Amino acid sequence: MSDIDTTTQAGDLQRRLADAEAALAEARAERARLWEEVNRLRAERREVEYYERRAEQMATSVSWQVTAPLRAFKGRAGKVRRRLDERNG
Question: pTM of the entire structure?
Answer without folding.
Answer: 0.57
